[in-house]
Amino acid sequence: MDTNEDTLRRLRTVDGHLRGIIRMVEQGEYCIAVIQQIQAVEAALNKTSARILERHLDSCVTTAVRGGDPIERERVLQEIAEVFEMSSKV
Amino acid sequence: MDTNEDTLRRLRTVDGHLRGIIRMVEQGEYCIAVIQQIQAVEAALNKTSARILERHLDSCVTTAVRGGDPIERERVLQEIAEVFEMSSKV
Amino acid sequence: MDTNEDTLRRLRTVDGHLRGIIRMVEQGEYCIAVIQQIQAVEAALNKTSARILERHLDSCVTTAVRGGDPIERERVLQEIAEVFEMSSKV
Amino acid sequence: MDTNEDTLRRLRTVDGHLRGIIRMVEQGEYCIAVIQQIQAVEAALNKTSARILERHLDSCVTTAVRGGDPIERERVLQEIAEVFEMSSKV
């Protein structure tokens, strides 16, 4: 499957899930059930990020590392270290 | 502000953010930028869950602990321990 | 099992694990293996926190909610909301 | 600073912190204070993993991507995607 298509399919599913949660809150459903659904949305978003990164490593990173520009290479590797560090905080 | 209104406002903001990310992907924006926006959405969802739990502790939990039913009390406290444990995993 | 004993047993196991990781690094083991072991230690610490909170809800929180002091009750519930919010960030 | 030296320094500091937490529990300190210290240890471990990964990207990954072996290259990039996905769950 095309990279963007897989990401779009995942994000649209998450968006449907999120709109379902909004309806739950509008109808006054039990707050713990709402928190559990929000946690399920977060797990799906983590999975989506991981898939995006996986393909990024395979394409952009490979290109940058093989390319002749050391500054570009450093920038691309630094970005990955930053999203890794951030991923533990959300 | 009313409990549900605050939660709804937060979730609708997250939903707008998420639809913005879908547009980013449709337009082929850089994948690291997409991951960073997904991480921002996750941080906003964490904040929303924490606010919901805070009010839950103040209302349902207080009612359950003061009420005469030990099984109901145990159930309510158990639920909180479970969402806490889950919160570290998403 | 006594509360403190269970917590101490878990923390001492984590400490043994962590000292094993230090030896791995001293011996120059592969860095991805080190990261995976660090992630296992973090998972064990999450589990330990969850168990501590579970018993706290059962004892201190129940006492505070039933007690006559509304400021103390508010303080105890606030603390739980704070550790919950923090738990998503580490 | 040498890679391993920085990692060892960080892990030994975490270990000292963890042994301090064990003493807190032995002395019966308040459980919320214990949870907060455990969360601080987890934050320090996250930081340590991020630093290890950063240097790994700079050395092993660059070598693997530039090397002539496509299976080795795929393996190294796959590992990074896996620790990234795991990092959101601990």
Description of the molecule:
The structure is a homotetramer of 90-residue chains. Chain A is mostly helical. Chain A has three helices and no strands. The first copy, chain A, is elongated, with a radius of gyration of 18 Å. The first copy, chain A, starts with a helix and ends with a helix. The mean pLDDT of chain A is 89. The A-B interface holds A 4, 7-8, 11-12, 14-15, 18-19, 21-22, 25-26, 28, 31-32, 34-36, 38-39, 41-43, 45-46, 48-49, 52-53, 55-56, 60, 79-80, 83, 86-87, 89-90 and B 4, 7-8, 11-12, 14-15, 18-19, 21-22, 25-26, 28, 31-32, 34-36, 38-39, 41-43, 45-46, 48-49, 52-53, 55-56, 60, 79-80, 83, 86-87, 89-90.
Helices and strands in order:
Four copies of one chain form a homotetramer.
Chain A: H1 3-26, H2 31-66, H3 70-87
DSSP strand tally of chain A: 0
Biggest chain pair contact, residues each? A-B, 40 and 40 residues
Arithmetic mean of pLDDT of chain A:
89
How helix-rich are the residues of chain A, as a percent range?
over 70%
Q: Main sheet of chain A?
A: none
Query: Quaternary state, please?
Result: homotetramer
Output the number of helix runs of chain A.
3
Principal-axis shape of chain A equals elongated
Sheet-strand content of chain A, in percent, reads under 5%
Alpha-carbon Rg of chain A, integer: 18 Å
Low-confidence stretches of chain A: none
